[in-house]
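Supplementary Methods S3. Input chains for the assembly prediction are listed below.
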Amino acid sequence: MDTNSNPNPPVRILPTLIIAAVALATGIWAAQALLNNKPPVDELAATRFPVARQLEPFSLVDHQGNTFDNAALRGHWSFLFFGYTHCPDVCPTTLSVLNSVSGKLADNNAPVRFVLVSVDPQRDTPEQLARFVTYFNSDFIGVTGSEEGIAQLTRQLGIMHMQVADESSPDSYLVDHSAGLLLIDPKGNYHAVFTPPLSADAIASDFRKMLKAFR
Amino acid sequence: MKPAGFFITAFLLLCCVIPAQADDTLQVSDPWIREAPPGATVLAGYLTLTNTTSAPLVIEAVSSPAFEAVEIHRSQVVDGVARMQPVSELTVPATGNISLAPGGYHLMLLRPVRPLTEGDNVILLLHRADGICVTVTAPVLRMTESSSHQH
Ligand SMILES: [Cu+2]
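Predicted structure tokens for the full assembly:
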């Protein structure tokens, strides 16, 4: 009979409403917490590719005269930075940041390498690069090659570099270059990129998160 | 050094031989030069300039007996590309200041006369547009641990 069932629906609706209200409040609270307070754990300063990009063949030489090619990027993580040794401001600043990252990741058991790829192969011989990179950290690697060899790598990574005449000293030139810091994973694939301003703390903490998620 | 470069440098040094009268209209703080890897032919210098007057002050040129040439440069990241460009002069705004710091304005110090390492002190001469020359002593500092300048 209807009269028997009638008093029941409101009673049953009430807990549902309470649950719905609590859920809504919780949802709003959670959303506010996400927006205002703590970022979610997987938030990164870096841009990570959904699928790491495989690299096309390239062949260069490191500061000790060894071949530096796709195989040299496998088996460990590599941070790649593009610059040149006749750059007294931005490049030393970046290498100092990378030295600090290297210190922060020292307790890490995954091997990490830091590589400066020259965008000025005309002046950056392996010897010149050796003096430059090892000044910042004896484990840092400097890489150079022919113009064509450098282009094989920079073109596929979207790295721009361009010689610019220095109007005030005609016998020298400057090089504009992309300022991003690239992360290559142990499979030798392009995994993520950090854009300036580069912070050692953000790079180290992002790296730990990406390392955890890496399979 | 080319003769022309030599004469320009000699001229710039000479104008500072005539001492400026005690002048505190332009204050210089935290001057320093970043120690560079061995064999470096180019270094960077930094400082903060404070203008105590009510009119802008212009630095037209900088010279140093420790370098063959000094340029005023600005580094900038534009659309993800790091760019370093010479600027013709530095303007210190009225009752304001301008900082030359890593990643921004800097003194581009070309071809050191002798190698410089931490502990050395370098004389910089700032040539103001009003003819006054400001002499600054900048220590060479090694900075490899962090990107921030610490005293
Ligand atoms: Cu410069």
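Residues 8-37 of chain A form the longest helix (30 residues). The beta strands of chain A are 47-53, 59-62, 67-69, 77-83, 112-118, 141-144, 161-165, 173-178, 181-184, 190-194.
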